[in-house]
Amino acid sequence: MWKRLQEQYEENLYGSVLPFWLRHSLDREHGGYFTCLDTQGAVYDTRKYIWLNGRQVWTFSRLYNQVERRPEWLEAARLGAEFLRRHAFDEKGRCYFSLTREGLPSFYQRKPYAGLFVMLGFSEYAKATGEEWYQAKAEELFVKVQEWIADARLLDRPALAGGVAYSNLADIYAICSMAQQLDRPDALRACIAKIPTHYVPERRLLLETAALDPAQRFTYPDGRLICTGSIFEIAWILFRALDQCPDPAVEKMLLDCIEGALEFGWDREHGGLYYFQDIDGRPMLQLESDMKLWWVHVEALLALIHAYSRTRDGKWLRWLERVQEWTWAHFPDPNHGEWFGYLHRDGSVSHQLKGNHYKGCFHIPRMLLFGSQEIARIREQESRQEPPAPR
User: Fold this and answer.
1) For position 211, which CATH number holds?
2) Which of 24, 153, 240, 317 is deepest in the core (most CB within 10 A)?
């Protein structure tokens, strides 16, 4: 199984996904990347989205650093890094959400995550090139993003009298991702310590936003929100953090949450994983809640590979085969490359696009790369009949 799966991931990554983005997304005239691409790769929106430009810089830099020093990958990374260096920041050092094709500010989102993905891209690009400016800027953004998370007023989002204080799973993901990129164990330990705030033990789930006041914990729909994709993603990212900062109780909790999210989120009628759910089964505000999204499924696959790698428990293999079969039957496009991103509940394609302002060259290639790397470790250990490597 593992040999077949590794070959499948590598064939899809190098033969379908990466060629699609290299062919269609690079703007060699103005720099940066087009991400709003239709089924065949034609551009339908020329704006440059900062989340996705930062992510794509990271993707091609990581491939160059860890797989092969291919000039085309470094050139693709350079195209995005230099564009972001010139245009991504306002006068206060904050990042825009989108730019025109030429680099003029188009929209400003009062969230910290554009800065997160620029930081990741710059740090990985600095490793590829040795250019000190990008590393220094990444370290500066590591501090700034944490400040923006701690005080949203710095992003012009005022605190309101009726607002509920939440811990956001996305914020933990942001800080943990940056801390791993820069190898900051103190920040990793802080992220690990925050995860239990989101844990609902009787359901084995993590809340997307956990009210800090227990009296308000399930009062509002956003406080009852479950996104299984977020649970899978934060689980495998924190597994990597736990390799540096072991915490057996949190590791067990994350394994329980992966299984809980699979059981809670799996559509027993049509297969696949729901996008959003209410932990109490109450009505959802998000009209797209029953859709099936690409990133939820790739994060599930990566979480399952890591869960098996850490435990050798056969239940993870059974779930992996189930999710793998459904994912591969519905998302990849064998005709034009890459994957469709948005499906109706029954698995039919709902949007004839390969990229937009949130879907780009990141979740899928990251899963295919990291998944194949982790599978290679599993295969090596099992060929020697070794137990899981000590964590």
Assistant:
1) 1.50.10.10
2) 24
